[in-house]
Protein backbone atom coordinates (compact mmCIF):
# COMPACT_ATOMS: atom_id res chain seq x y z
CA UNK A 1 0.00 0.00 0.00
CA UNK A 2 1.61 3.26 -1.06
CA UNK A 3 1.58 6.33 1.14
CA UNK A 4 2.04 8.64 -1.82
CA UNK A 5 -0.56 11.37 -2.31
CA UNK A 6 -3.11 10.45 -4.98
CA UNK A 7 -1.87 13.10 -7.39
CA UNK A 8 1.64 11.64 -7.24
CA UNK A 9 0.28 8.18 -7.99
CA UNK A 10 -1.51 9.55 -11.06
CA UNK A 11 1.65 11.38 -12.16
CA UNK A 12 3.62 8.12 -11.78
CA UNK A 13 1.10 6.23 -13.91
CA UNK A 14 1.16 8.82 -16.69
CA UNK A 15 4.96 9.01 -16.57
CA UNK A 16 5.18 5.23 -16.97
CA UNK A 17 2.88 5.40 -20.01
CA UNK A 18 5.29 7.88 -21.59
CA UNK A 19 8.31 5.74 -20.72
CA UNK A 20 6.66 2.62 -22.20
CA UNK A 21 5.79 4.48 -25.38
CA UNK A 22 2.05 4.29 -24.90
CA UNK A 23 2.10 8.08 -25.01
CA UNK A 24 4.63 9.38 -27.54
CA UNK A 25 6.26 12.82 -27.88
CA UNK A 26 3.68 15.23 -29.23
CA UNK A 27 0.70 13.06 -28.25
CA UNK A 28 -2.18 14.71 -26.44
CA UNK A 29 -2.95 13.51 -22.95
CA UNK A 30 -6.53 12.60 -22.10
CA UNK A 31 -8.63 15.59 -21.07
CA UNK A 32 -8.87 16.56 -17.43
CA UNK A 33 -12.44 15.23 -17.39
CA UNK A 34 -11.30 11.89 -18.83
CA UNK A 35 -8.51 11.62 -16.23
CA UNK A 36 -10.96 12.49 -13.47
CA UNK A 37 -13.18 9.66 -14.58
CA UNK A 38 -10.34 7.16 -15.07
CA UNK A 39 -8.78 7.72 -11.65
CA UNK A 40 -11.99 8.67 -9.78
CA UNK A 41 -10.52 11.86 -8.37
CA UNK A 42 -11.32 15.56 -8.35
CA UNK A 43 -10.24 18.05 -10.98
CA UNK A 44 -7.91 19.64 -8.41
CA UNK A 45 -6.08 16.32 -7.97
CA UNK A 46 -5.74 15.84 -11.73
CA UNK A 47 -4.33 19.35 -12.09
CA UNK A 48 -1.80 18.69 -9.32
CA UNK A 49 -0.63 15.58 -11.17
CA UNK A 50 -0.34 17.48 -14.46
CA UNK A 51 1.51 20.32 -12.74
CA UNK A 52 4.08 17.87 -11.38
CA UNK A 53 4.67 16.35 -14.83
CA UNK A 54 4.98 19.84 -16.30
CA UNK A 55 7.61 20.76 -13.71
CA UNK A 56 9.51 17.58 -14.66
CA UNK A 57 9.37 18.70 -18.35
CA UNK A 58 7.56 15.48 -19.29
CA UNK A 59 4.45 17.25 -20.52
CA UNK A 60 3.52 20.78 -21.47
CA UNK A 61 0.25 22.66 -21.51
CA UNK A 62 -0.93 24.62 -24.53
CA UNK A 63 -3.52 27.23 -23.73
CA UNK A 64 -6.91 26.36 -25.17
CA UNK A 65 -5.66 23.04 -26.52
CA UNK A 66 -4.70 20.75 -23.63
CA UNK A 67 -1.64 18.90 -22.34
CA UNK A 68 0.88 17.14 -24.57
CA UNK A 69 3.89 14.89 -24.11
CA UNK A 70 6.89 17.17 -24.52
CA UNK A 71 8.95 16.64 -27.64
CA UNK A 72 12.71 16.80 -27.99
CA UNK A 73 13.96 20.30 -28.65
CA UNK A 74 14.47 21.32 -32.28
CA UNK A 75 18.20 21.60 -32.98
CA UNK A 76 18.89 24.95 -34.63
CA UNK A 77 22.34 24.71 -36.21
CA UNK A 78 23.40 28.31 -36.69
CA UNK A 79 25.82 27.36 -39.47
CA UNK A 80 23.18 25.56 -41.54
CA UNK A 81 20.93 27.91 -43.54
CA UNK A 82 17.77 25.81 -43.70
CA UNK A 83 14.08 26.53 -43.62
CA UNK A 84 11.72 25.71 -40.76
CA UNK A 85 10.45 22.67 -42.70
CA UNK A 86 13.97 21.47 -43.56
CA UNK A 87 15.05 21.63 -39.91
CA UNK A 88 12.22 19.25 -39.05
CA UNK A 89 12.44 16.96 -42.09
CA UNK A 90 14.09 14.13 -40.14
CA UNK A 91 11.56 14.36 -37.31
CA UNK A 92 8.63 13.24 -39.47
CA UNK A 93 6.20 15.54 -37.66
CA UNK A 94 3.33 17.64 -38.91
CA UNK A 95 4.15 21.33 -39.27
CA UNK A 96 2.19 24.30 -40.53
CA UNK A 97 2.19 28.08 -40.51
CA UNK A 98 -0.62 30.38 -39.45
CA UNK A 99 -0.27 33.64 -41.39
CA UNK A 100 -1.48 36.49 -39.20
CA UNK A 101 -0.47 39.46 -41.39
CA UNK A 102 0.11 39.62 -45.15
CA UNK A 103 0.30 43.12 -46.59
CA UNK A 104 2.23 45.44 -48.88
CA UNK A 105 3.54 48.54 -47.12
CA UNK A 106 5.79 51.51 -47.89
CA UNK A 107 9.34 51.00 -46.66
CA UNK A 108 10.29 53.26 -43.78
CA UNK A 109 13.72 54.85 -43.79
CA UNK A 110 15.03 52.11 -41.46
CA UNK A 111 13.50 49.19 -43.40
CA UNK A 112 14.63 50.70 -46.71
CA UNK A 113 18.22 50.84 -45.46
CA UNK A 114 18.04 47.26 -44.17
CA UNK A 115 16.56 45.86 -47.39
CA UNK A 116 18.67 48.17 -49.58
CA UNK A 117 15.67 49.64 -51.40
CA UNK A 118 14.47 53.21 -51.81
CA UNK A 119 12.57 54.80 -48.96
CA UNK A 120 8.85 54.46 -49.69
CA UNK A 121 9.35 51.47 -52.02
CA UNK A 122 6.70 48.79 -51.69
CA UNK A 123 7.72 45.86 -49.51
CA UNK A 124 5.92 42.82 -48.18
CA UNK A 125 5.23 42.61 -44.47
CA UNK A 126 4.33 39.11 -43.26
CA UNK A 127 3.77 37.80 -39.77
CA UNK A 128 3.23 34.11 -39.15
CA UNK A 129 3.21 31.62 -36.31
CA UNK A 130 5.04 28.36 -36.97
CA UNK A 131 3.59 25.19 -35.47
CA UNK A 132 4.90 21.70 -34.69
CA UNK A 133 1.72 19.63 -34.67
CA UNK A 134 -0.67 21.88 -32.73
CA UNK A 135 2.03 23.64 -30.71
CA UNK A 136 3.13 27.20 -31.59
CA UNK A 137 6.95 27.37 -31.41
CA UNK A 138 8.05 30.43 -33.40
CA UNK A 139 6.65 33.85 -34.25
CA UNK A 140 8.22 35.19 -37.44
CA UNK A 141 7.92 38.71 -38.79
CA UNK A 142 9.40 39.20 -42.27
CA UNK A 143 9.87 42.08 -44.70
CA UNK A 144 10.73 41.38 -48.38
CA UNK A 145 11.12 43.67 -51.44
CA UNK A 146 7.91 43.51 -53.47
CA UNK A 147 9.88 44.16 -56.67
CA UNK A 148 11.72 40.86 -56.11
CA UNK A 149 8.55 38.90 -55.36
CA UNK A 150 5.54 40.55 -57.03
CA UNK A 151 3.77 37.18 -57.15
CA UNK A 152 4.23 36.31 -53.46
CA UNK A 153 0.96 35.03 -51.99
CA UNK A 154 -0.63 34.23 -48.66
CA UNK A 155 -0.59 30.56 -49.66
CA UNK A 156 3.17 30.63 -50.26
CA UNK A 157 3.73 31.98 -46.76
CA UNK A 158 1.56 29.24 -45.30
CA UNK A 159 4.19 26.84 -46.61
CA UNK A 160 7.91 27.22 -47.35
CA UNK A 161 9.27 30.63 -48.29
CA UNK A 162 12.63 29.14 -49.27
CA UNK A 163 10.97 26.59 -51.57
CA UNK A 164 9.18 29.43 -53.36
CA UNK A 165 12.36 31.47 -53.74
CA UNK A 166 14.53 28.59 -54.97
CA UNK A 167 12.14 26.29 -56.82
CA UNK A 168 9.58 28.75 -58.20
CA UNK A 169 11.57 31.97 -58.60
CA UNK A 170 14.80 30.06 -59.44
CA UNK A 171 16.87 32.40 -57.30
CA UNK A 172 20.01 31.28 -55.47
CA UNK A 173 20.14 31.99 -51.73
CA UNK A 174 23.69 32.67 -50.62
CA UNK A 175 23.73 33.47 -46.92
CA UNK A 176 21.98 34.87 -43.88
CA UNK A 177 23.55 37.31 -41.42
CA UNK A 178 22.07 36.55 -38.01
CA UNK A 179 22.04 37.98 -34.52
CA UNK A 180 20.52 36.19 -31.53
CA UNK A 181 19.51 38.23 -28.49
CA UNK A 182 17.51 37.59 -25.32
CA UNK A 183 14.35 39.70 -25.02
CA UNK A 184 11.26 39.92 -22.86
CA UNK A 185 8.20 38.79 -24.83
CA UNK A 186 5.63 41.46 -25.59
CA UNK A 187 1.91 40.83 -25.12
CA UNK A 188 1.46 39.57 -28.69
CA UNK A 189 4.35 37.08 -28.39
CA UNK A 190 3.10 35.83 -25.04
CA UNK A 191 -0.40 35.32 -26.43
CA UNK A 192 0.49 33.70 -29.77
CA UNK A 193 3.20 31.41 -28.35
CA UNK A 194 1.48 30.65 -25.02
CA UNK A 195 4.41 32.14 -23.12
CA UNK A 196 4.96 33.33 -19.59
CA UNK A 197 5.40 37.06 -20.19
CA UNK A 198 7.77 37.30 -17.21
CA UNK A 199 10.32 34.89 -18.72
CA UNK A 200 12.92 36.02 -21.31
CA UNK A 201 12.96 34.35 -24.73
CA UNK A 202 15.35 34.37 -27.69
CA UNK A 203 14.95 36.49 -30.79
CA UNK A 204 16.86 35.86 -34.02
CA UNK A 205 17.30 38.91 -36.23
CA UNK A 206 18.47 38.04 -39.74
CA UNK A 207 19.08 39.46 -43.18
CA UNK A 208 19.09 37.10 -46.17
CA UNK A 209 21.20 37.64 -49.30
CA UNK A 210 20.95 36.17 -52.80
CA UNK A 211 24.04 35.04 -54.69
CA UNK A 212 24.07 38.34 -56.63
CA UNK A 213 24.28 40.31 -53.39
CA UNK A 214 20.68 41.51 -53.22
CA UNK A 215 18.91 41.44 -49.86
CA UNK A 216 15.80 39.29 -50.21
CA UNK A 217 14.49 39.41 -46.62
CA UNK A 218 14.77 40.90 -43.19
CA UNK A 219 13.26 38.77 -40.42
CA UNK A 220 12.75 38.77 -36.69
CA UNK A 221 11.98 35.36 -35.16
CA UNK A 222 10.87 34.89 -31.55
CA UNK A 223 11.56 31.36 -30.31
CA UNK A 224 10.13 29.46 -27.39
CA UNK A 225 13.45 28.69 -25.77
CA UNK A 226 12.23 25.42 -24.24
CA UNK A 227 11.46 24.10 -27.73
CA UNK A 228 14.78 25.00 -29.39
CA UNK A 229 18.46 24.52 -28.76
CA UNK A 230 21.04 26.54 -30.70
CA UNK A 231 24.27 24.83 -31.66
CA UNK A 232 27.50 25.90 -33.34
CA UNK A 233 30.97 24.51 -33.81
CA UNK A 234 33.87 26.78 -32.83
CA UNK A 235 37.38 25.92 -34.07
CA UNK A 236 40.53 27.24 -32.43
CA UNK A 237 43.01 28.72 -34.86
CA UNK A 238 46.51 27.22 -34.74
From TrEMBL:
Sequence ranges assigned to domain HTH gntR-type in this UniProt record: 4-72
InterPro entries linked = Bact_HTH_transcr_reg, Chorismate_lyase_/UTRA_dom_sf, Tscrpt_reg_HTH_GntR, UTRA, WH-like_DNA-bd_sf, WH_DNA-bd_sf
Record PROSITE patterns: HTH_GNTR
Q: Which UniProt keywords apply?
A: DNA-binding, Transcription, Transcription regulation
Q: Which SUPFAM superfamilies match?
A: Chorismate lyase-like, Winged helix' DNA-binding domain
User: Gene3D superfamilies attached here?
Assistant: Chorismate lyase-like, Winged helix-like DNA-binding domain superfamily/Winged helix DNA-binding domain
**CDD domains attached here?**
WHTH_GntR
For biological process, the GO terms are: negative regulation of DNA-templated transcription
User: GO molecular function terms here?
Assistant: DNA binding; DNA-binding transcription factor activity
Q: Name one Pfam family in it.
A: UTRA
- This chain belongs to the protein called GntR family transcriptional regulator
Question: Which organism encodes this protein?
Answer: Scandinavium lactucae
Amino acid sequence: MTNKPRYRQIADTLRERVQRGELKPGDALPTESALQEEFAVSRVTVRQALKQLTQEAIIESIQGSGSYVKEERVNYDIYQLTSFYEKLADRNVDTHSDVRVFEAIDASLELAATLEVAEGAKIWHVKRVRFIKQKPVTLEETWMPLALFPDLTWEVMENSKYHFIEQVKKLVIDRSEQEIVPIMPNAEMASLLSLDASQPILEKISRGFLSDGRVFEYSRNAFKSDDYKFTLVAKRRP
